Amino acid sequence: GTLSQSQVVAFPLMIILSWMGLAAWLFPAEDALAANAAGTYGRLHYPVEAGRQISLLILGFQLFWDVPMTFTSAMYDPVMLVHHVGMLGCAVVSFMPYVQYYVPFFGGAIELSSVPLVIIDIFHPKRYQDVADSNPISAQANFFMRVIFLLSYLAIRCIWFPVVVFTEVLPDFLGELSSAANVSAAAAPIIGMLFILPLMFLQFYWGHLLIRQAIKALSAPPEMADDRVAKPTEMVQ
Fold first, then answer.
1. What string of DSSP letters covers 95-124?
2. What pTM value is reported for the model?
3. pLDDT tens per residue, range 57-107
4. How far apart are CA 85 and CA 63, in angstroms?
5. Can you give the residue ranges of the TLC domain (predicted)?
């Protein structure tokens, strides 16, 4: 079905993006080091090859898979559509080049939390949970994968993500905005903030849903728990 196809496509991409992003963010290449050393202007305007490569992957995935698939009846969700269009817009803007220094983090590293999501979404109660529940070992593995997803999502998307936004990205945008000589120069940081801030609050929104569903699952009768914990996994992709 459509959802299974989506997971087959998404799983390897999430692994590739998270690996590329973490490697480039934690162990920056010379061009990223040079961009950082140049301060605000360097981080926002210097070309960074790892950022460009990740943006190319995101652009292709959004154009040829995520955005078109979100319009299908099985996957349509206006919030997810906004998310995908936002990611597409960020990728396009980065080719100016703009904020390529930050692309490995926001386009790659944070996708690490999406890897367990793809796995648990396969075994959603509406799809293949009977496979996961076919023996005690796979049932326990499915449960622990859900826990790993919840913890990784909260740690990466609701803590690490805003920390980088507030301590690095936003100061750079505001710094460039304050020194802008004209409206044209101010446009780029304004557009950047219009992308990153809504995306950040979207992470908080999904994190809130996950916590709420986890609380419901813990308080639900055993036969209802699976249905209650599964719904948010459809939203955070």
1. TTT-STTTHIIIIIGGGGGHHHHHHHHHT-
2. 0.83
3. 999 999 988 888 888 767 778 888 888 888 999 999 999 999 999 999 999
4. 9
5. 8-212
**Number of structural domains, the chain?**
1
DSSP output for 158-207: IIIHHHHIIIIIHHHHHHHHHT-SSHHHHHHHHHHHHHHHHHHHHHHHHH
Give how far Cα 8 sits from Cα of 3, 113, 171, 203, 213, Å.
Answer: 9, 17, 38, 23, 25
Residue 27: which domain range? 2-234
CB-based contact 117:226 (threshold 8 Å): no
Q: At a CB cut-off of 8 Å and minimum separation 6, what does 182 contact?
A: none
